[in-house]
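LOG
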Amino acid sequence: MVKEIQAYNNKQIAVDNEICDLLANTIDSVLTEAENKIWHAHPVWFLDGNPIVGYDKQKDGVRLMFWSGADFEEEKLKAGTGKFKDASIWYTLTEQVALKELKSWLKKSREIQWDYKNIVKRKGKLEKLK
């Protein structure tokens, strides 16, 4: 895990730190080719400069978000309400993270992608990459 993401995780209370560490380590183990960094104040993983998955601590728990997750057709991932293709799941306990399911979603995140990298250049219009 990169130092800045570990520092982000370490700032969380114990239970959220455990969730964040579990998410980061699992994402790193599946998306081995991804670049990861703190982006817009929370950990995000990128494939070819395109944001794929990230998490952040919010009032209601730790939110795991997939930028193209609305197209994963996964009941547990709740689609965002805007014009984007994101979908999220919330965790308040480490035991809620189903690793087999998470790994499946991470594999889908590699296969199903919308082009967020060029969204500004396209004036807010999303195009499907994969």
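LOG (cont.) second protein
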Amino acid sequence: MERARSDQPMSEINVTPLVDVMLVLVVIFILTAPLLASSIRLELPRSQAARPGQAPASLALVVDAGGRVYVNDQVLTPAELDQRLAQAATLDPDTEVQLRADQAVPYGRVVEVIGQAQKAGLARIGFVADSAAAAPVPGR
């Protein structure tokens, strides 16, 4: 009398249940994906006041290594700078000042320019810098 060797553990992975579960998940995702999008159709009213994608006003302010101030590539004296900043604040108080200052400019000079912008009523000031990867390495 011979016995069948059914006592041995099965060494192969049964992937059929895994495939079944994955197929069920795929079907669920296929059915629910269109439902995730907004299904409400609207006819929005038209308005002259609404302007999509209108970029906020900005003013490019540059302080070079000599301490001279440029607005849109034009050199200005401190009095002219005050006038130009006040004019920009009058046109749009949310105008953003994009301040670019040379790294050799003393901190005090940069603070003076920021003070002039704030005095004129421009509170949104952004500092522009180059990324470290793009900056040239000194001594090379």
